[in-house]
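SAMPLE LOG
Freezer: B-3
Tube label: C17
Construct: single chain, 194 aa
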Amino acid sequence: MNRTIICPKCSHVRPKDATNPEWQCPACGVCYAKAGDTSAGAPTPARVRHEEVVVKQGWDLGTLFKIILFVVLGWAATQIYQSKRGIKIEFTQGEAMAQSEGPVDARLRQAAVGARRSDLILYSAEWCGYCNAAKAMFAENNIPYTNCDAEKDMRCAREYADLHGGGYPLFVVRGKRLQEGLDYEALIAALEKH
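STRUCTURE (predicted):
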C-alpha cells in the first residue's frame, strides 16, 4: 500500500504498518467503503468542517444602547414639537397662578359665597405644585377649604384611598368627588351646583 488513506468518519490517517485489513480504519473500525467511499478501494479523505461558536454572555450592550438612544431621541423630538406648537405640559406654581388670574378668580369667589371649610376638601401632597397653586389661589381669594395632606395624615390617607385617589390634587365638593387635577372650571361648576 503506497497511498495515504484518511478515514472519512474520524479523519484518522492510516499508518503504513497497520495490521488490520486494508478496507478497515485502525482507529474507529469503520469500513472505508461504507463510510463514504465512492470508488472501490479508493477512500475519499473526510473533510471536517470546523466552525467557531461564539457564546454571548450577559447583556447585549449594542441593542441596549440602541433602545436608550431611540427613547432619548423620541423624547427630544416630542419636546421640540411641543415647543414649536406652544404646548405646555408642566406648569410651575407661577404659571398655574398666572392662568388663574382674571375672570376665574371672580367666578370662583362668587361660586364659593356662603361655603364653609367642610364644603371644599383638598387632598394634597406637600410636593405637588398644582396643590400649592390651588392653596395660594384659595388664600388670595379668601375661599374657605380644608387641606388634607394624604401623605402626612393617616386619616387623610385612608379617606384618599377610599376615594380611589390616583393623583393630586383631588377635590371633594360637598361630598362629591371631582376628577383629579387642577380644573378650576369643574371646581366652580361643582360649587355653583349646590
